[in-house]
């Protein structure tokens, strides 16, 4: 911390920066890095005493994205087998060359914090933000308490709301209301010596997770994250109760957890409403979960938070250099994000709404359909990497979908991907037609 900051805090004067980032999760730390790279003087304000603690995520993600984002390989654990379970069905996909992985979450967040600091940003742990400072309808800073519990003003032309689910600034600035539909997850991080370290499970059905799913994510050295997530308010089930009864509710997996014991306990909330209509305002940019930028398909948000944070920080830096933090200037971030992710997020939300309340029988049928896909197709679907070729490929392996209610979904998704004509049996049954 610079000496003048210390003096400002004791004299009660406002601290001044170019960009203030609220929240030191993956979105905020990534925004801080790119804003600082753009020449801005940046402060990240994080309410917790440590970056990456407490963990409130399972850390499942994709190796290609971690490579693209320059994440060191010792921060993720590659997965070789992905197993989907429904009440009466099971399908396994093997990846000799792993495509998905489980993160060392705390390690990743601290790595991102190190990168932000190396780029020139300051990180202030133990600094909870109470709300925005608004002047003439514009966000011009925030009120935060420092590590000695003294409230003070932190002023900057651009504030980045990266406060996750709580979306502290954007909701208090009146840009939108809080999330009403969300995933509620509870998870044990166990030492489980009898668990197969290569197998990642995604488990559906009313026994283990009504309107949601359960998961078991190995992460090396005998550790496994075992969790349950449910969608609120679709159901009012308590994920914690289902988690505690997991091995009784799914006896087939009980042997994998013999001799296991939790070492950590995590809970968290994830927005599940699809893309929010607005995430910039004059002097304000929201990113990551605060902007609803995660995928509602399986409740995946870490890589999206990093990408969205990087975009937000870049545009914040540009606004500072241009001396223009107006909503009109910052809207370029909105446009860039929608151009890159809007379509896949929209389709994922359509899928989420279709499958969220599936019955056990529908899950069994769904797993049967998955069985006919190649490991590559299954991974693309799970990633939400929709393309016309992928959707037609899925239909070619499951032509009976064209005679079911699913046809409407495929037509809608293909339309979103830019194909106006509804899909026909002829083109599915004769691939080269
Ligand atoms: C149970 C569960 C499991 C999940 N599993 C996965 C998974 O396997 N893979 C995946 O990709 N995603 C997963 N997600 C989603 C993922 O965790 C989020 O999308 C991701 O963490 C979003 O990052 P973020 O930086 O936007 O927000 P967060 O990670 O929530 O970070 C926000 C930060 O802001 C801080 N903050 C909040 N309010 C204030 C304030 N007033 N003042 C100062 N600081 C504040 C918080 O302390 C926090 O550090 C899961 C989510 C849940 C709930």
- Report the major sheet: 7 strands, mixed
The proportion of residues forming helix, as a percent range, comes to 25-40%
Over the alpha carbons, how many angstroms does the gyration radius reach? Answer: 23 Å
Give the CA-based shape.
Answer: globular
| Tally of helical segments | 14
User: Which hetero compounds are present in the coordinates?
Assistant: flavin-adenine dinucleotide
How many distinct beta strands?
20
Structural class: alpha/beta
> Could you tell me how far the N terminus lies from the C terminus, measured between alpha carbons in angstroms?
66 Å
Instruction: Provide the CATH superfamily of the largest domain.
Output: FAD/NAD(P)-binding domain
**Corresponding CATH architecture of the largest domain:** 3-Layer(bba) Sandwich
Strand order of the main beta sheet, please?
Answer: 7-6-15-16-17-14-18
Give the class-level CATH name of the largest domain: Alpha Beta
Mean pLDDT: 93
Uncertain runs: 1-11
